[in-house]
From TrEMBL, chains A, B:
GO molecular function: L-isoleucine-2-oxoglutarate transaminase activity; L-leucine-2-oxoglutarate transaminase activity; L-valine-2-oxoglutarate transaminase activity; methionine-oxo-acid transaminase activity
One GO term of the biological process aspect: L-valine biosynthetic process
Catalytic activities: L-valine + 2-oxoglutarate = 3-methyl-2-oxobutanoate + L-glutamate; L-leucine + 2-oxoglutarate = 4-methyl-2-oxopentanoate + L-glutamate; L-isoleucine + 2-oxoglutarate = (S)-3-methyl-2-oxopentanoate + L-glutamate; a 2-oxocarboxylate + L-methionine = 4-methylsulfanyl-2-oxobutanoate + an L-alpha-amino acid
EC code(s) of this entry: 2.6.1.42
PANTHER family named in the record: BRANCHED-CHAIN-AMINO-ACID AMINOTRANSFERASE (PTHR11825:SF44), SUBGROUP IIII AMINOTRANSFERASE (PTHR11825)
Taxonomic lineage from the root: Eukaryota, Fungi, Dikarya, Ascomycota, Saccharomycotina
Protein name as it appears in the record: Branched-chain-amino-acid aminotransferase
Entries under InterPro entries matching the protein: Aminotrans_IV, Aminotrans_IV_CS, Aminotransferase-like, B_amino_transII, BCAT-like_C, BCAT-like_N, BCAT_family
Amino acid sequence: MTVGQLDSSIVKITNSANKSEPLPNDKLNFGKTFTDHMLTVEWTAEFGWAVPEIKPYGKLEIDPSCCVLHYAFELFEGLKAYRTSDDKITIFRPDMNMKRMNKSAARIALPTFDSEELISLIGKLIEQDKHLVPEGQGYSLYIRPTMIGTTDGLGVAVPDKAMIFVILSPVGPYYKTGFKAVRLEATDYATRAWPGGCGDKKLGANYAPCVVPQLQAANRGYQQNLWLFGEEKYITEVGTMNVFFVFKNTETGKKELVTAPLDGTILEGVTRDSVLTLARARLSPEEWDVNERYFSILEVEERAAKGELVEAFGSGTAAVVSPIKEIGWRGKDIQVPLLPGEQFGELTKRVSEWIADIQYGREEFKDWVRVVADVK
Amino acid sequence: MTVGQLDSSIVKITNSANKSEPLPNDKLNFGKTFTDHMLTVEWTAEFGWAVPEIKPYGKLEIDPSCCVLHYAFELFEGLKAYRTSDDKITIFRPDMNMKRMNKSAARIALPTFDSEELISLIGKLIEQDKHLVPEGQGYSLYIRPTMIGTTDGLGVAVPDKAMIFVILSPVGPYYKTGFKAVRLEATDYATRAWPGGCGDKKLGANYAPCVVPQLQAANRGYQQNLWLFGEEKYITEVGTMNVFFVFKNTETGKKELVTAPLDGTILEGVTRDSVLTLARARLSPEEWDVNERYFSILEVEERAAKGELVEAFGSGTAAVVSPIKEIGWRGKDIQVPLLPGEQFGELTKRVSEWIADIQYGREEFKDWVRVVADVK
């Protein structure tokens, strides 16, 4: 018998008995409330992907010996659906998330799947709950595809059972009052990821170990860690965001937008890729270099002292871009310039607008935007 | 109000409707069948540890947004209960496991607890299912204490809810036909742990990322990876075991038992500690050095070539000691000597007997053995 491929055309839909009313926009907290339905698809090594099910949101029954609870056979993605000004529901670059999800799955011996089929299933799930996609700039529907190993038993081995589930959470802007620049603590006493590890994959395993250092940074007044690597103190990423710096060479006047290279220790962010792609297309090459290269907190410190640090921001699905105002390093704060009286630098603002215009359909950008539902 | 401490005296016991018959010893597979009862204790940041419950073994209901499924807030322990020749049930060095479990919990911001209270609760759980502890050398009851974060919602944050659960699995000897020496593949293309990481804690996060390299090694005929670290190619551990080597200096005739030091990248194995403690107490210091020091696969290769490699074994709760016969390294196999016609070296056998004699009560060793039930 043929092992089953993931197939969106055979989805079984069970409607929820209650149809929720949308919460007012000001009551939306990130990832705290969910829509009425969820998607689940089970997989076994023997039969492959089973019939996908869209059904009422509800608890999963998990055996206490299940491998997801002991050995972290788990991975996830995060993407967003937007309600455009002409009342369509679109999702942003889902092919990038699906590609990364497949790479994450392969890294921990979980099954891969046809990306387009899962995108189609996510579309059908959203169609079911489309009245709960919030309206307005900064509001969206956060989509959380997840895959877990579901083999019961305590041997550490390749799972022979797994499950994809997708849940949806209506969310507001990450910072309720527009941009709010963050303070990061450059962290070298703990290490997020390393060569030969799995820091470039969206595995559960990369997250829990970062929470204590985050708490320690928070106790010193910093929102997040800026993870450094190695004796060189290379800047890697923020754990929930990639990170970009803008330098200006005082001799030549040329500016550089720089982020760490994808060397296996850094998450391959979809927003990171979007920022790089747009910056390369839209910034004048006479004025700008756009680089993926190694750079260290020591370079940032030195160039800040020389007046060459122009601005810095994080990039990720949740906040899209997140301006940075200070970086704690060896007991001092490196000041990152902001525009006078504002919470952001000039490029941070421009990049944010470039992406939002595409996401909310004010600018057509077909390759990056998929229409999944119509709420007219 | 006072936040609740873990308290074994208030445990609530609900008996299972069916009382299982023990499986015949030859049907026991590691971690595949479980006893009739399980222990669960819930924790909240607000109220602390709730009333512990011993109840019928059964599925957990977990919300699809729960942090254990997304961010690997999970850790576990492994220890064993033995049926002694005078029909007592004992557990081996549980204080060591509880100490490590508390350290694992603190590393990922999960709650700590009073070790003695959890040992007492495990004793009560075993009392409930004591007829399922198998008899005979090599047979035991594997105990799996687990802690998971149970906060629902997708923000990456310190969990404000958690749960301990303990399940029990009757198990046979790791190798059914006595010792069977294993082949390991020295692995430097993937990295299990890193300074500033969490490789010394028993977190779920350390396990899933090691399964693909294990599969690759298995495809080349090796049972496990021997994880190397750094340019020096230091030998660290086997992922499910610590590892010991015996060298003999051909000039002085002195032997050395050596294992990697606890530098934060190596699990603090209870069997490792037991081997070191017994070896230091029982091996003649004129003939033996017992060292925790850095040593590399290059040293092993060189000393094997000089005829100075005497034997090697892994140590862990599952197999206790596991002899090693070959180590794949750069396309060749380093041969590890075994006694003629046997699957083990001389010290491997002695160490195994030392520990088994204590575990099965043939030798009194009060500090390491706790009686938890009486089956007479």
